[in-house]
Amino acid sequence: MISIKDGPHGARMLGLHPEILLAIPVAHEILREWGADLTVTTGTDGTHMANSLHYAGYALDFRTRHLTSEQKEAFRRRLGEALGRHYDVVLHKTHLHVEFDSKR
Description:
The chain has 104 residues and is α+β, with helices and mostly antiparallel strands. The protein is built from four helices and five strands; from the N terminus they run βααβαβαββ.
């Protein structure tokens, strides 16, 4: 299942570009192999660095707290490989950050 974080601090999906939206079904397929669901926790919302691609609609964060350490690292690696060189996939302590950067 794919879900979007809901509530007053839910993920804002308005203004996201197709390039970053592509990451959602790809991430879902990877997690589905482990019987895990995909939750988008941040879109164009949240507080980030001044030039964050979240604000431009080119970044997403995915929940990882339900994964083991090994699965988190495998998720990062596999998603990066599947999306290709124009995407940056970074594993943070609380989530997996994905951004599309055409300059890469």
